[in-house]
Amino acid sequence: MDITNPDLVKIERGDDDLSFREIEPGKVYSRILIDQDSGRIVYELIEPQMEQRLQTVYSKYVKQYMNSGNRSVINISLESGGEKGKKPLPTDIYLDQRDADVVRYYVERDVSRYGRITGLLLDPDVEDISCEGAMKKIYVFTKEYGYIATNVIFNDDNDLNFFIRKIVQDSGKNISIADPIVDSTLSDGSRIQASIGNYVTASGPAFSIRKFRKEPFTPLDLIRLGTASAEIFAYLWLCIEYGSNIMVTGGTASGKTVMLNSILLFIPQNLKIITIEDTRELRLPHENWLSLVSREGIGKNDPVTGKRTGEIDMFDLLTASLRHRPNYIVIGEVRGREAFTIFQAMSTGRYGLATFHAEDISTLIHRLESKPINIPRSLIGSLDAAIVMGNFVFKGETKRRVKAVSEIMDVDSHHGEMTVNNVYSINTDDTFKSSEFSYLLAKIGNRYGIEVGVMERDVRIRKNILEGMIRRNMTTYGEFTNLIFSFYHDRDAVIESFKADR
Ligand SMILES: Nc1ncnc2c1ncn2[C@@H]1O[C@H](COP(=O)(O)OP(=O)(O)OP(=O)(O)O)[C@@H](O)[C@H]1O
Ligand SMILES: [Mg+2]
Description:
Layout: E1 19-24, E2 28-34, E3 41-46, H1 55-66, H2 97-111, H3 118-122, E4 126-131, E5 139-142, E6 146-150, H4 157-170, E7 181-185, E8 191-195, E9 206-210, H5 219-225, H6 230-242, E10 246-250, H7 256-264, E11 273-277, E12 289-293, H8 314-322, E13 328-331, H9 338-346, E14 351-357, H10 361-369, H11 377-380, E15 385-394, E16 397-411, E17 418-426, E18 432-434, H12 439-448, H13 452-471, H14 477-489, H15 491-499
The chain binds adenosine-5'-triphosphate (ATP) and magnesium ion.
């Protein structure tokens, strides 16, 4: 008989709880509260209690199921001392139903789910998970309280190394002494960066997970968060509609990928888009979208090609994808030899969008021009603009902001000098200023025979639509993408419907 005890955990919201979540009814809960001793806000994950005496039974089943092909159905017998026909384990243990359910919970959690962090991954309040080592509290990032310590902890390096190896292997990649750092995507779409052993981090194994958001941030979300203004997005909308080459640049975790994904939503739906990434992060509503993800090889690097057996890198994907004649090529993060190809493509009529790790525009250009990327200055000129992301502290809080939108103006063919126009930049009081003139709008206008004044009016019209959507509270992903689609289908009707608003 298989009766699952519905209440392995009995708990209710406490008076002091700042937040209380039922993650899996009867089994997993979380609460955020102020720790009495430290006075700090902490996160508590609550799971069923497993008594010490059940440990051997648990270990036996973990071993058995880890080695079996089928990890999805876990059966725990009430007589768990030994397997049928075999000698019983030294401890002959008989479980009652509750014991069996608790053991099943933990075996399932550790064999077929994400071990100790399963509850954190399932908690909708948690956005990021970071573990800096064994015997250290895992931290989670929550929208409301920022980074807070949890009661989840790995007991020792072996425990943590084992966990990392398993979670990385389950995601289809490998981590080993030869390759101790991995960046991968979990089956729920979350992105993990992990390292094992003492090879990379002084403190031993560590990992961080950026959880998958069901729906990417839209420009409206970013306007509401203050990341950029409606006018900046209106400008980007126009540039992307007409076709532009834009890179989003900034430091680690400055919001580059989020910004890139949000502006991709402006691409007209009839265009062919190819995205190329090492880990899948970008998501688009377009039907004509092909998503390519690179693949790691196995074994040693081939001395001739420098690659491993089966390896397909971004460069391979990019060269192959150019044959598909995409209108827009999007590269998740430009790092290596694919950079040259994307610049060549951009200079021959394809449009390219990408992120690139550089703190500011001069570093961006410098890195593009130096080893190992080595793009000649004449090709750099095919980049139309860069969106520079940065972290700023306003009123004591760190915010992700567009630091500047910089247009790359023509490269002087005599001196090779390059001038940059900051068409938008952030002020110290968290507002944005714009320059008098946009060279990119003028360039696009030239190409299509449209006067600059008309381009500027088009920016205002789009700004009005974006602001109107926020006013009307039409800010879900679905509402946003629908509006963009209807705009490209019948723009006059959309413009008209927002005029009536004013
Ligand atoms: N404008 C924003 N406002 C608030 N949170 C944001 C914003 N942009 C990104 N985030 C959050 O910050 C984290 C990092 O964002 P993102 O992946 O875009 O950064 P990145 O610069 O691409 O990082 P990496 O250098 O690792 O590629 C994510 O958890 C994301 O949800
Ligand atoms: Mg990124």
